[in-house]
C-alpha cells in the first residue's frame, strides 16, 4: 500500500461507509463492521486495507479478471490509445474497434459482426432489440417472444430482468416487459423436482431440451423469435447441461426458426477451457453476447456479436429511414475498451491461458471431487475449466440445501484462510447454497491446491 498512510486508509473506509452503495449485499452489517477495501492486486492475489493478502478465487467477485491483476501492458495500451484518440461513436470507426472486432471474429467461426456497448446487460438488450426488430421487419410483428431458462441470469435492466430465471433478483422489480417466456432448467442434480421421472445423463439432457419445444408449441412457433441461454448457468448455481441437451436445443431452434442467443458474459474469453463456452457443444448461435472477461475489468466493454445473416436483415432498404438498427450505445465509442481487449486477448494467447484454464480446471475438479468424498455436506460438484461450483446440502438423500448463514460462514472461513470465494444465487430465496470458484486463468497448481485447502478447512470447521 505504498503512498497510503493509516490516516488515508481510515478516511477511505469512512467515505466508503458513508457514501458508497455496494452491489449485491445488505448494508446493515456495514453499520457496525468495516467494509473490505481492496487496495492492490497482482496476478491472482489482492490485498485489503490492512495489508491482508488473499488468493482471489472469483476473479474480482464476479468472474471478470481473467488475466489477473496488475497487467502493466494493458494499462500501457489503454493509456497510449486514450492520448491518441479516446472516443468516437456513430458511423465512424476507430482503430482498436476495427482490429479487436477482426481478432474476435477469428475466434468465432460462423460469426461476423461486433456491436460494441458497455455491460453484459446492455449487450443482451441489444440482442433482444435486434430480435424484436427482425420480428417487425420479417414476421409482421409476430415472433417477438424471447424464451429464457429457469435459473439463468442475463442482467439487471428491466429488459434483461424480464429474461431473468432467478426469482429473487426479479420479484420486487415488476412490472416487467411482456413476451419473455420461461423454459425449465437443465440441472440434472435437481431433476427429480421436474416431474419427468428418474432420468439421468443424455436422457435427461434430451428431456430438458424437449421441454423447450413444449413451450414453443404452447406459445405458438410463429410467436417465438429467440431462445436466450447461458452455455453454463453461472449465478444460478454453476450448472453444466449433460450431453444431449445442446444438440437437441439446436435442432429445435432450427425446426421452429427460432434464433439462438448464447450469453457468454461469464463463460467467454477462455474461462471454461475454450474461447467460448458454446464451443464445447458444437452449436452455431445467431447471437453471442460477452462482457466480463473481454477486457478482464481493465476497461468497460461488452459486445453483441451476430452472424452476417442476422446483420443482412438490417440492411435491406437504404431508402427507408427505419430499416436499420436504430440504436446507439454512447460509450460503445470509447476506444479504451477495445484497446484493453486487444491486449487482454494477446495475453490470453501468448500465455496459453485457454489451455491453462482447461488443465487447471481438471485439477480443480479432481480436488473438489476429493473434497466431496470427504465432506458429506457436498451434494454435487459441477463446472468446466476454471468455472466450478460445489452444491452444499444438509442431507444427500433429500438434497435439502444448507442455510445461507452456513454458506456465509464458509465464505468467511475461506477468507480467514486467505482465499476469497463466491456463493451463487438460486431461483428460490433461501437456497443460496452453491460455492463458486473462478480464479484468474493464470492460476498455478499451487494456487488451485491452496484454494481447495481453504475450502477443506472451512468445511471442516463449520460442519
Ligand atoms: N449475463 C450473465 C450470464 C451474467 O452473469 C451477468 C452478470 O453477472 C450479466 C449477463 C450482466 O452483466 P452486467 O452486470 O455487466 O450488466
From TrEMBL:
It comes from the Bacteria. GO terms for molecular function: pyridoxal phosphate binding; transaminase activity. InterPro entries: Aminotrans_3, Aminotrans_3_PPA_site, PyrdxlP-dep_Trfase, PyrdxlP-dep_Trfase_major, PyrdxlP-dep_Trfase_small. Its cofactor is pyridoxal 5'-phosphate. The keyword DNA-binding does not apply. PROSITE patterns: AA_TRANSFER_CLASS_3. Belongs to the class-III pyridoxal-phosphate-dependent aminotransferase family. PANTHER family: AMINOTRANSFERASE, AMINOTRANSFERASE CLASS-III. This is Taurine--pyruvate aminotransferase. It comes from Maritimibacter alkaliphilus HTCC2654.
Amino acid at each position: 500500500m505504498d503512498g497510503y498512510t493509516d490516516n488515508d486508509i481510515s478516511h477511505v473506509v469512512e467515505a466508503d461507509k458513508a457514501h458508497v452503495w455496494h452491489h449485491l449485499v445488505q448494508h446493515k452489517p456495514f453499520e457496525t463492521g468495516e467494509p473490505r477495501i481492496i487496495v492492490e492486486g497482482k496476478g491472482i492475489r489482492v490485498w485489503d486495507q490492512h495489508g491482508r493478502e488473499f488468493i482471489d478465487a472469483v476473479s474480482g467477485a464476479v468472474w471478470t479478471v481473467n488475466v489477473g491483476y496488475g497487467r502493466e501492458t494493458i494499462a500501457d495500451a489503454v493509456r497510449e490509445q486514450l492520448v491518441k484518440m479516446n472516443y468516437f461513436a456513430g458511423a465512424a470507426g476507430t482503430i482498436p474497434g476495427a482490429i479487436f472486432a477482426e481478432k474476435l471474429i477469428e475466434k468465432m467461426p460462423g460469426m461476423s459482426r461486433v456491436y460494441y456497448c458497455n455491460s453484459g446487460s446492455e449487450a443482451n438488450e441489444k440482442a433482444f432489440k435486434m430480435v424484436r426488430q427482425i420480428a417487425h421487419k420479417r414476421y409482421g410483428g409476430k415472433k417477438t417472444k424471447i424464451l429464457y431458462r429457469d435459473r439463468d441470469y442475463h442482467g439487471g435492466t428491466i429488459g434483461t430482468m424480464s429474461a431473468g430465471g432467478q426469482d429473487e433478483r426479479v420479484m420486487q422489480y415488476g412490472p416487467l416487459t411482456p413476451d419473455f417466456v420461461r423454459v425449465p432448467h437443465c440441472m440434472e442434480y435437481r431433476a427429480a423436482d421436474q416431474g419427468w421421472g428418474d432420468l439421468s445423463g443424455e436422457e435427461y439432457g434430451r428431456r430438458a431440451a424437449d421441454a423447450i419445444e413444449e413451450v414453443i408449441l404452447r406459445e405458438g412457433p410463429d410467436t417465438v423469435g429467440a431462445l436466450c441461454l447461458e452455455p453454463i448457468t453461472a449465478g444460478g448455481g454453476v450448472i453444466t447441461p449433460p450431453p444431449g441437451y445442446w444438440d437437441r436445443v439446436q435442432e429445435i431452434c432450427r425446426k421452429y426458426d427460432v434464433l439462438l442467443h448464447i450469453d457468454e458474459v461469464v463463460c467467454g474469453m477462455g474461462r471454461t477451457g475454450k474461447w467460448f463456452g458454446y464451443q464445447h457443444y458444437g452449436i452455431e448461435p445467431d447471437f453471442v453476447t460477452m462482457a466480463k472477461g473481454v477486457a478482464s475489468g481493465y476497461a468497460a466493454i461488452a459486445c453483441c456479436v451476430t452472424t452476417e445473416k442476422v446483420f443482412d436483415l438490417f440492411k435491406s432498404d437504404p431508402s427507408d429511414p427505419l430499416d436499420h438498427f436504430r440504436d446507439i450505445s454512447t460509450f460503445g465509442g470509447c476506444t479504451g475498451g477495445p484497446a484493453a481487449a486487444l491486449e487482454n486477448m494477446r495475453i490470453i494467447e501468448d500465455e496459453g491461458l485457454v489451455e491453462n484454464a482447461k488443465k487447471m480446471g481438471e485439477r480443480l475438479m479432481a480436488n473438489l471431487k476429493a473434497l466431496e468424498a470427504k465432506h458429506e455436506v457436498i451434494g454435487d460438484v459441477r463446472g468446466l475449466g476454471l468455472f466450478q461450483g460445489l452444491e452444499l446440502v444438509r442431507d444427500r438423500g433429500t438434497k435439502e440445501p444448507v442455510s445461507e448463514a452456513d454458506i456465509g460462514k464458509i465464505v468467511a472461513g475461506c477468507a480467514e484462510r486467505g482465499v476469497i470465494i463466491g456463493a451463487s444465487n438460486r431461483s428460490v430465496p433461501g437456497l443460496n447454497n452453491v460455492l463458486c470458484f473462478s480464479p484468474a486463468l493464470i492460476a498455478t497448481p499451487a494456487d488451485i491446491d491452496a484454494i481447495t485447502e481453504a475450502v477443506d478447512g472451512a468445511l471442516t470447521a463449520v460442519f
